[in-house]
Write a structure and sequence with these properties.
Rossmann fold, 11 strands
């Protein structure tokens, strides 16, 4: 617990809460962009300890949750092919596609394997030259370097049977889309510390300036979050709109230059459909032409298709911060982690899963 317990110090949390109560004069709505932050806020009871004027709004920072149905259907299609080994992180398996989930495909005999690193999938490709190994590459900028590195490694090894099904989404364009939405209710942001560890903070300056909102890069422990909220509210009360870095122990302004070079070598920026939200321009990564033979979409001729969302799921409203999970009429009844209507109920970073496992729903605040 060394180097971690200090960020869970009850006395420090209470000190920042006291400061918050001392400075807040009016209602503010602050969106934590990352699902990991959402889980920490809910699990640690921070939402109930904040001044009543402060409403935390849960954003679309769950890459599993925003992976569109047609890409999940593509993964399911590949997993059902006789010569394919489909590799994925575990939290994608229960996410429902338009018909089934990857877990159901695995149960019916599809070769779906849970891995903990994309390099495990590269190793599988080397060990199974008679099979096509596809890694389902889902994530924000945080996981992009490792996924890109797997392509570089496969290229160095001369593997012809490895590819990735890329579903990478980018945080800054999503923040811009939320702030541009006519229904926007957000006054400030807690930005995702792990994303900024890779990408740095420079790209947030134009957003803060254009939309005149404070953005505080924040970690994931209770002290991180309460301090980040205090920093955001301090700006809101003063009328400033700067990018601040609470997570300075990990985040540098320019980020990780080597990781960014690897990303930009393997991927190119593209428009991306976000599940429940729609298309956001320049908000995703696709495999670049230089590494086109490692692009599963091109290798297997996967064509884009429109797949309608489940009308019973309000995931889009939850991801945009317009609704809280418990405001869904199916929450905890028709929609549970065992039988989800949408990804936010099964992802380890999904807001609905956080509320289902950790929250007393009647104590939360409705966003209007």
């Amino acid at each position: 617990m060394k180097y971690l317990s200090e960020y869970r110090d009850e006395k420090v949390v209470k000190a920042y809460l006291g400061k918050l109560h001392g400075i807040v004069t009016r209602p503010w709505k602050i969106m934590e962009i990352c699902g990991g932050q959402t889980h920490s806020l809910v699990k640690n009871g921070v939402l109930q300890m904040l001044p009543e004027e402060i409403t935390m709004v849960h954003g679309p920072g769950c890459p599993v949750c925003v992976t569109p149905l047609h890409i999940i259907d593509d993964a399911i299609d590949l997993a059902q092919r006789e010569n394919v080994i489909l590799c994925s992180f575990g939290d994608m398996l229960r996410v429902p596609g338009s018909g089934k989930s990857l877990l159901e495909i695995k149960a019916s005999g599809g070769d779906v394997r849970i891995v903990y690193s994309p390099l495990e999938a590269v190793k599988l490709a080397a060990q199974n030259p008679d099979k096509e190994v596809v890694f389902f590459a889902v994530g924000f900028e945080t996981t992009a370097p490792a996924n890109a590195l797997s392509v570089v490694q496969a290229s160095k090894l001369g593997l012809e049977n490895y590819s990735i099904l890329a579903s990478h989404v980018l945080v800054p364009p999503a923040m811009g889309a939320i702030l541009s939405d006519p229904e926007n209710v957000i006054d400030g942001f807690l930005a995702a510390g792990h994303v900024c560890t890779i990408m740095g903070t420079d790209e947030y300056d134009p957003i803060a300036e254009k939309y005149r909102v404070p953005i505080v890069v924040t970690g994931f422990e209770p002290v991180d979050l309460v301090q980040g909220i205090y920093m955001a509210v301090s700006q809101l009360e003063k009328g400033t709109h700067l990018v601040e870095n609470q997570y300075a122990r990990m985040v540098q302004r320019k980020g990780n230059e080597l990781a960014k070079e690897t990303i930009h070598d393997v991927f190119r920026t593209s428009d991306r459909v976000w599940r429940g939200i729609g298309e956001i321009p320049a908000s995703g990564y696709e495999v670049s032409e230089q590494y086109a033979k490692y692009d599963a979409r091109k290798k297997f001729g996967l064509a884009h298709r429109e797949v309608p969302e489940n009308p019973e799921c309000i995931a889009g409203q939850v991801l945009k911060g317009l609704k809280k999970p418990h405001e869904c009429p199916n929450f905890g009844t028709k929609c549970t982690p065992e039988n989800p209507l949408g990804a936010p109920m099964v992802s380890s970073e999904g807001a609905c899963a956080a509320y289902y496992h950790f929250s007393n729903f009647d104590q939360t605040v409705t966003v209007s």
